[in-house]
Write a structure and sequence with these properties.
Length: about 325
């Protein structure tokens, strides 16, 4: 492998991902999980990488970034060094896919430095991500709503991308991240999935029906009312699948309260991203977005952060300095 000439520093910017719902926890048809989601307007992650004599990692979340870098280098049998600086990280264990986005950003930066393949699934495998959900992998690769088909049993391949649809430019997402003590880490998540009861067949079928015959067509038709109703219904159903572990349909406390209140405040679709505590509401237009974001900020006070804006139309952004 060679170091790319003339591009000593590579910058990668990527956004948090929102998980709209899992498709199937049973695996009875040969595939696990699957799901629907999108990249959030914010928060975002930014890091840089350039050749060095050894592996050097600093900045925010440096230890985790170094772990991903070592996995990538070992996967490709590389002994060259690289310097990575995480200039801005995502909130960890907040339901925003911070680990996947960091791992993919590290892998993409190193792939650019060492002129290796840059497709997102290959990078995910190299850094050890995508073991369950592939939503973050596909939002890293591109914008819009993504639908992924789940993993085959006993295989480490990333779930395939089944659909990618653009959001109407006028739709706005309000994302709230309450400041609560994270409870769902990697080890805890694996244990939680092991303890989850199998969802009823009828509910799994209902989710698939809502996705195929309500959520996706409504997005194509720019019908926010139908889209939001389908999304909220999917969230209620899949939230019950996780209730035995997380303590309710939504994470108890500010997350659950905000989901309910955003619906009362006019959001057409509401939900919790993954295990939370991040929650979101979707509305039509700039004014409605600002109004909802202001109400959520008032409700949270100093107890969280709020982001508002249009859904992203592209995936991770890669730029270079030093031409």
């Amino acid at each position: 492998m060679t170091v790319a000439s003339g591009t000593p520093t590579v910058f990668v910017d990527t956004a948090a991902r929102l998980h709209f719902g899992v498709l199937d926890l049973r695996g009875s048809l040969g595939r696990w999980f699957g799901g629907v989601g999108a990249a959030a307007p914010a928060p975002t992650l930014r890091l840089s990488a350039c050749p060095a004599d050894s592996l050097i990692v600093d900045g925010e979340d440096a230890e985790r970034a170094a772990t991903f870098a070592r996995r990538f280098l070992e996967h490709h049998g590389l002994t060259r060094g690289v310097k990575i600086r995480v200039e801005r990280s995502l909130p960890p264990h907040a339901g925003l896919g911070s680990g996947t986005q960091l791992g993919l950003a590290v892998g993409r930066a190193l792939a650019e430095v060492f002129t290796l393949p840059t497709d997102a699934p290959a990078i995910a495998r190299a850094v050890g991500r995508g073991e369950r959900s592939a939503i973050g992998t596909w939002t890293f690769a591109g914008g819009g709503l993504v639908l992924e088909g789940g993993r085959r049993k006993e295989q480490d391949a990333v779930g395939p991308l089944l659909a990618r649809l653009p959001f109407p430019s006028t739709w706005r997402a309000v994302v709230a991240v309450p400041h609560v003590t994270p409870w769902m880490t990697g080890a805890a998540e694996a244990d939680a999935f092991a303890r989850l009861p199998s969802p009823p067949d009828r509910e799994v079928e209902r989710v698939a029906h809502l996705v195929l015959m309500a959520l996706l067509p409504a997005l194509v038709d720019a019908d926010l009312v139908t889209f939001g109703g389908a999304l909220s219904a999917i969230q209620e159903i899949t939230g019950r699948w996780f209730a035995a572990v997380q303590g309710g349909t939504f994470a108890p406390g500010p997350s659950e309260a905000l989901v309910r209140r955003m619906a009362e405040w006019g959001a057409s679709g509401v939900g919790q991203s993954s295990w939370g505590p991040a929650v979101y509401g979707i509305v039509e237009g700039d004014e409605a977005g600002r109004r909802l974001a202001d109400r959520v900020r008032e409700a949270l006070g100093e107890g969280g952060t709020v982001h508002e804006g249009p859904f992203r139309t592209e995936g991770a952004r890669v730029s270079r300095a030093g031409f």
